[in-house]
Write a structure and sequence with these properties.
2 helices; 88% helix; rod-shaped; mainly alpha; 103 residues
Length: 103
């Protein structure tokens, strides 16, 4: 392989070494990268805050679900007691009816 295969042609070399291209590479590219970096950082910050807000809302919803579950458990326990009381009342009524039938 000859060295000429890997070298840049003279007109291209002149363009690369020209003042506008050097100015562009030293000024515009760092500014462009800084702007892109700024938008990336602000986007990540927004995502972080959004995730935190979402997480907080999930925990609030879970708290409400657990509160509702606890309330339902208490309601079910109270209902079970009432059903047991009704069952005892029915037993008493049956006893009274049976005693009436015997007399």
């Amino acid at each position: 392989m000859a060295d000429s295969d890997h070298t840049i042609s003279e007109p291209a070399r002149r363009v690369i070494d020209s003042t506008p291209v050097i100015y562009f590479s030293r000024v515009f590219i760092p500014v462009a990268l800084s702007i892109i970096g700024y938008f990336m950082v602000t986007t990540l910050d927004d995502l972080k805050h959004g995730m935190k807000d979402g997480s907080d809302k999930i925990w609030i919803a879970l708290d409400r679900v657990s509160t509702n579950a606890n309330t339902q458990a208490v309601d079910l326990a109270a209902l079970k007691v009432k059903v047991d009381d009704v069952g005892k009342s029915v037993d008493r009524i049956n006893t009274v009816v049976d005693s009436i039938k015997k007399n």
